[in-house]
Amino acid sequence: MSKGLDMSYAGLKISRRKLMARGVLAVGISVAAAGSARSTSAAGVSFTKHEAVEKGPGCLRVAACQILTYPDIAKSTEKVVGWIEAAAKDNVDVILFPEACLCGYAGGDYWKTARPEDFKRGEALVIEASKRFNIAVVLGTVHWDSEKIYNGLLVIDKGGKVRGRYSKTHLAESWPVPGRTLPVYDVAGVKSCFIICHDVRYPELVRLPAVAGAQICYFSSHESGLSREDKLSAYGAMPIARATENSIFCIMANAPADPKTLRGSHGNSKIIHPDGNVLVEAGYFEERLVTANIRLSDASRSIARRAANDETILKEWLNSGAKLVSVYD
After folding, report:
1. Closest-CA residue to 169 (of 121, 123, 201)
2. Is 12 domain-assigned?
3. Were both Cys, which of 21, 64, 260, 285 would link to 290 (CB 3.0–4.6 Å)?
4. Taking the model in full, what pTM does it have?
C-alpha cells in the first residue's frame, strides 16, 4: 500500500483490514473458469467459480461501466461515448452506466442553472453511438417533464432504438421528484427491469418486475464513499439479495471512489448470477468495463414465480402489486 493512500485511510479512520479484505487494491475479480473450485483475488476475496459461458444463442454479453464523470455534460458525454465504443469492440450486447453519469452526479446549486437542452444534446450523442456501434445502452441521466426533474435511466436498445425511461422511485436527493412507473423493457431481446442507487433497499422494486417477466435487473448507482465504512457491508449484500431472491441476473454499475478524497462513491461494480454468486467485480478505484457472458436460461425467475404462485397469505397482495408493472415489447 502506498504511503499516500495509507495516510488517507488513517485520516478518515477507515479500517485498513476491512478495506483490504474487500479488495481495495484488487484490479478486479473475474470468475470465468470451469468447475466448482474457488477463485481467490489478489486481496484474498474468494468466490465460487461458474462454468465459462461461450457467446452464442441463448447468451448475452453484458458490461457494467465503472467510470468517473463530471458536472460538464459535454465532457462526460464524450467519455461515455468512448466507453461505448470500447464495449462494442469487446462484442458487448448491453452496457450499463452509473447513476446520473452525464453530470457526474452533481448536486446542490448545480440544479439552479442546469438546462434540459444540455442533457438532451448529450443523450442524442449517446443514442447516435448506440446506433453506430449497434449496442444497447442503459444510461444514467436526468430529464425534465412538466418542469419537474427526474433522476433516471434512458434505455436504448441496439441500433439506437429508445425503449423508454426509468425514474428513481426512492430518492436520496432533494433536487428530483420520485418516479411513478415500474417499466419492463426488452433490451437486446431480454425482458429487463431497472433500479437506481437507494432503490436497491426496497426489494419489491425488483420482485414485482421479476414476477412480470424480467430476467435481468440493471442497477445503476453512485453510492456513498469509502469514508462511510458502516455502509459497505450492506452495499455489497443488497444487489446479491435482489438477484438470488428472484432468480434473475443483477448487473450493477457504480461510480468508482475518487482516490484524491475517498469520497463520492466506492466502485465494486459487479455482475451477479441468479444463484447469488458474483461472476465478476471491480475494485474501489479503477475505471473499467466489468463484463461477462450470461446464460439466459439460468435466469429462471423461480423464486419470484413461486412467491406469486404459492398459496400463501401474500399471494393476492403480490399479484395485485405486479399489475403496477408496465411491460413493453
Report:
1. 201
2. no
3. 64
4. 0.87
